[in-house]
């Protein structure tokens, strides 16, 4: 089992080396950038030399900012619960032998890998067709939250391991549509402060990794019900969906 950790560590070292070689602080400094790409990036970019402090009070009083923060929290609740508990569910809840758990558990994440890219392309195509940014963000997030919420309401009652994994794989397909929703919404509303907003929302997004996994464990210990664990995650998705649809915006609000 030690090699599971060694391999992840090795991938991190390789990634770091590539990052150091390939990434520059500004697009103009990159040796591989073309004139057309430079013009495209600089067209709507905020000034790169801006040094003023972010307007915290104004940012935190914006419903659109909180839509992103709450969206990140709710999205990560389901993600962390599945990440932490899926192998145990497959092994103990569905009675799959431990040696086969990895094979079953990898399919939802293969689907996520593929459809995060597909979802981004879909969002771009909608923009090219003239859809308003706010409409695109809310539509993509409606799929990204509504789809997994519906699936998680019922997946705990499925007795067949292949059927349960198929449903969770489909849930991850829907979750991937968040790539065109809250995940890029920071750049829409505040391009100059997108990094700050990502810091805020990602901080909120780590909280489910602390409390979501713990609460799921308590529910499982008290009730023994996997269905209830997944239904709580579904309820969090539904809450995030309603909040995001009510308050999210694709308009530039801060600059």
Coarse shape: globular
Q: Tally the helices.
A: 10
Overall average residue pLDDT: 90
Write down how many β-strands occur, each being a DSSP E stretch of 2 or more residues: 0
Largest sheet: none
Instruction: Report the portion of residues in β strands.
Output: under 5%
The helix-and-strand class reads mainly alpha
Q: Over all CA atoms, what is the radius of gyration?
A: 20 Å
What string gives the helices and strands in order? HHHHHHHHHH
Helical content (DSSP H or I, runs of 4+): over 70%
Q: Could you give a quick summary of the protein structure above?
A:
This protein has helices spanning 2-22, 35-43, 56-60, 63-93, 98-128, 133-154, 161-175, 182-189, 194-223, 226-247. The chain is mostly helical.
